[in-house]
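Recap quiz, item 2
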Amino acid sequence: MFALAMPVSPAQAADLPERSVIMDEASFSRFHRLTARPLRAYLLRSCGDLDLANDLLQETYFRFLKSGFEGNDDGHRRNYLYRIATNLLTDHYRRQRPQTHEVPEEDGSRGHADEIHLRNDVGGAMAEIGARDRQMLWLAYVEGASHREIAEIMSLKPASVRSMLFRARKRLADELRSRGLRPKLEGS
Amino acid sequence: MTHAECPHEKAVLAAVRSGEWSPELEEHRNGCLSCAELTVVVAALTNDAKALMAMQEPVPDPSPVWLRARLASKERDFQRATRAIVWVQRAAVGLALGIGVAFAPNVWHTLKTAAASLDLGSPVLDVPRAAGSPLLIVVCSMMILGLLAAWELIAAREV
């Protein structure tokens, strides 16, 4: 569990594609070791397909390096990495549904990668809610991102994140309850 | 849809993550729908994340990504460095086309006259005069340079 750092400003983001690789290979390897597994978990739970998640993971790091983004620290860089990954997921959903320009509330991907979704009941419940809900819940409760960071990563209005997150949480809680899932709590 | 955030939400979130519940907080959670939902969701997601991160399948090797990015970076640097040359080449092609269009009506007649009056035995310095017009030499030179530049541009694009 980690907190994400400050978001990338639009001015910085606009400047990024013209810059060169800045990290050296050793720094990149270290950063990759630190972030690859959590990022793949995020991608995997969002798209539900291990091969696709691995492809998106590679493409995310490639775009990250290509951007030449330096960041202030690892948290800052990680934040930017998740933003790239989220954009790639959005592009993936758009390619699947060319008639819409929005990330789908329900991506209809249930069953397209049963081995991941059905690995446990939480995965099954996550597969029942929308792609955007999955991403938002993961960023908030697994990655520990603030509402402002979620807004930056997912290109949303900061003011709407709170209510969207609340609704997403309710949807997932309902799904979990319908599966009879209760958390194992030390205090209960 | 409206919602009210429970003031205990942060404390509940911390307790779910740490597993340390005070009796008061536990009692609150059992009576608060929002905090009960939060507890269920965070605990489920945390366990799910742990399971996914502990997966046996290795993450893809980062080395190819690094090499691909280096290659893209070098290509971008090369394109940046040769941008000025490309513009000069484009200008030369444009100039050659302009000159070609301007002189097109008379070019064949001028070439024929020049060829007829050309004295190949004359010294090099006299060639423009012998060809009938120094301007013709300039025009021909520019045309040749323009063609060379166009050929270079096309070859670079094919590469």
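Chain A has a mean pLDDT of 78.
Residues 25-47 of chain A form the longest helix (23 residues).
End of item.
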